[in-house]
Amino acid sequence: MEKFVIEGGRKLSGEIRVSGSKNATLPILAATLLTDGICEIRNVPKLRDTWTMCKLLRSLGKTVDLSGNKVRVSGSANNHIADYKLVSTMRGSFCVLGPLLGKLGKAKVSMPGGCVIGVRPVDLHMKGIMALGVKADFDAGYVMAHAPQLKGAQMYLGGTFGSSVLATANVMMAASLAQGETVIESAACEPEIEDLGDFLSAMGAKIEGHGTPRIIINGARKLNGTNYKMGADRIEAGTFLIMAAAVKSDILVQDANYNHLLALIDKLHAIGVDVRKAGNNDVRVKVKKTLRPANIATHPHPGFPTDLQAQYMALMAITPGVSIITDRVFPDRFMHIAELNRMGAQIRRDAGSAIVEGVKQLYGAPVMASDLRASAALVIAGLVAKGRTEIHRIYHIDRGYEDLDRKLTGIGAKVFREKE
Ligand code: EPZ
After folding, report:
1. Which of 23, 250, 304, 377 is deepest in the core (most CB within 10 A)?
2. Active site residue 115
3. Is 60 helix (H, G, I), strand (E, B) or coil?
4. Which pLDDT score, from 0 to 100, does residue 114 have?
5. Are the C-beta atoms of residues 19 and 236 closer than 8 Å to each other?
6. HEC profile for 356-400?
7. How many angstroms does the Cα of residue 165 sit away from the middle of ligand 1?
């Protein structure tokens, strides 16, 4: 295993580039199961999760060539069983359910385990595929599903905590090869769903409304291979904007799609951060004065992203004053509180929220990464802390941030990757 060693307290400056979107790449790779044609996908992030999805596709019969930031997928799916060993390491694998049903008419997919950010139910996935005529049940930790022929249907996919990104993705992919029209009401509106809809359309699917709460899909008899370039990862971009604010530096974040980050940028403006478009898809961040605290509550897109909640908490930990942070998507997504407090933060839980009292200074300490975004929060804290921070179990970071240590070193940070 490896750890990050960070010497904090340094002024950073320069340019940092955002990689391709992890959470768009996973469903788009899964969508290649829908065709026997060749799909060539560029700007794919070099991440553990990308590698895991490619391995899963090979286990399902596809030929997958992954080289650098490019993936070439060809061949036919000939196995409908997504094995526990692979799905349990990455929840995103569950989005092979829809395409396997669309292409093969059957699927046996291991239930995704829970994880540190909270319970990860699949009831909306099941509701969606069953609306398409799928017979589905649970057996020994697997979802067993089959349908001689998928039939389009109208369905409502909203849940207690709002819409589900991957449930929307699963239904879109299955419906692309169903007979007739499918209408998804209360669909997830995340940019990753927009990306998936664009990819499916490039394969010949008839889809409209992706990125809005109402998606209409007219099933096709067959889908074709296509070429596609992944858009930028909005959560990585948002992480860099928050990091730049925390280290109070002048940073140009390249390939950050400003319009995908409006909820975060609005909040950064409110606390006194100068964030502005800087041509193309770049965003410049400057901090000229002491920041003010501001409360947040996360919501499905276009609300404040749950995947940026931990990073924002690290920023509030060193912002004078009190802020209240509530996660309406994953109410228990607070594993990072204990680790930030080890670094001198003053954060406590109260009635489902986190109360953050900003402190003047954080101090380097050995801390433990627990999930992808909590780990990013610890990196931000390590960059601003006085002294040396060691972040253990950084495989969590490698799942979702491409070459993070190299990128941070490029703007003047002292971040070293070392063997445990
Ligand atoms: C996607 O997960 C992302 N993962 C998550 O990012 C992200 O946090 C999440 O969407 C919310 O934005 C990928 O795209 C690979 P959900 P997903 O289904 O689709 C409830 C990261 O750090 N729900 O949108 O699995 C659920 O409990 C990861 O990159 C049901 O109730 O999340 C949650 O409260 C972490 N029933 C809410 O919906 C269901 O059937 C949103 O979950 C499914 C979900």
Report:
1. 377
2. yes
3. coil
4. 60
5. yes
6. EECCCCCECCEEECCCHHHHHHHHHHHHHCECEEEEECCHHHHHH
7. 6
Per CATH, the number for 22-229 is 3.65.10.10
* Ligand 1 mean position, distance from CA 185 (Å): 17
Q: What is the pLDDT of residue 50?
A: 96
Which of 19, 22, 23 most suits a substitution to test ligand 1, by most atoms within 8 Å of the C-beta?
A: 23
Report, as ranges of residue numbers, the positions in the chain whose pLDDT lies below 50: none
Q: Which residue, judged by its Cα, is nearest atom 26 of ligand 1?
A: 120
Say how far apart CA 51 and CA 46 lie, in whole Å: 8
In whole angstroms, what is the distance from residue 1 CA to residue 389 CA? 17
Atom of ligand 1 nearest to the CA of 301: 12
Nearest CA to ligand 1 atom 1: 165
- Name the helix (H) or strand (E) containing 267: helix 262-270
Q: CA 308, CA 374: separation in Å to the nearest integer?
A: 9
Please tell me whether residue 223 adopts helix, strand or coil conformation. Answer: coil
Q: What is the pTM of this model?
A: 0.97
Report the C-alpha gap between 249 and 2 in whole angstroms.
28
Residue located via tokens 């940092």? 16
CATH of domain 2-19+232-419: 3.65.10.10
Q: What is the 3-state secondary structure (H, E, C) of 143-159?
A: EEEECCCCECCEEECCE
User: Of the residues 123, 329, 332, 402, which should be mutated to test ligand 1's pocket, given the most ligand atoms within 8 Å of the CB?
Assistant: 329
pLDDT (0 to 100) of residue 119: 78
| Same fold: 2-19+232-419 with 22-229 | yes
CA 335 to chain centre: 17
Separation CA 127–CA 174 (nearest Å): 13
**Best substitution site from 52, 164, 196 to test ligand 1's pocket, by max atoms within 8 Å of Cβ?**
164
Distance CA 95, CA 305 (A): 20
Q: How far is the CA of 166 from the centre of ligand 1 (A)?
A: 7
355/374 Cα distance (integer angstroms): 17
Q: Where are the domains of the chain?
A: 2-19+232-419, 22-229
CB 2 within 8 A of CB 392: no
Please give the Cα distance from 11 to 161 (Å, whole number): 39
The whole-angstrom distance between residue 69's C-alpha and the CA centroid of its chain comes to 18
